[in-house]
Amino acid sequence: MQGIEPKLHTSLTSRIEYYRLLIEAVDDAESQSSDLFLQISELGNLYDDYLFNKKNLEKSIKNYREYHDHLRKRLTVRLRELKRKAKQR
User: Fold this and answer.
1) Interacting residues of 13 by C-beta distance below 8 A, sequence separation 6+
2) What is the 3 state secondary structure string of 41-55?
């Protein structure tokens, strides 16, 4: 599974901050009213959502692996017992 690299997100957010500072320096009201700032905010929200989902997915994968390993070990033991019983008969 491919994820979002934090470097890509950080790179864009730093460019966004630079853009915001330039707009403030120029004091261009027309640029500030653009929907770019709304999209920037949405991007931040999406990234936070991604991180939350990634954390939950990692936890689910860990739980699945633990349960899988536990069940596999139990099954292996029972199979060995049944094989022994089958050979004794």
Assistant:
1) 43, 44
2) HHHHHHHHHHHHHHH
Total count of domains within the chain = 1
Closest of 89, 15, 7, 74 to residue 47, by C-alpha: 7
Cβ pair 25, 76 in contact under 8 A: no
Q: Is the pLDDT of residue 65 over 90?
A: yes
Q: What is the mean pLDDT of residues 24-50?
A: 77
Which domain does 54 fall in, by range?
Answer: 6-88
The confidence score (pLDDT) of residue 72 equals 94
pLDDT score at 3: 74
Q: Global pTM?
A: 0.64
Residue 1 lies in a domain: no
> Is residue 21, in this structure, part of any structural domain at all?
yes
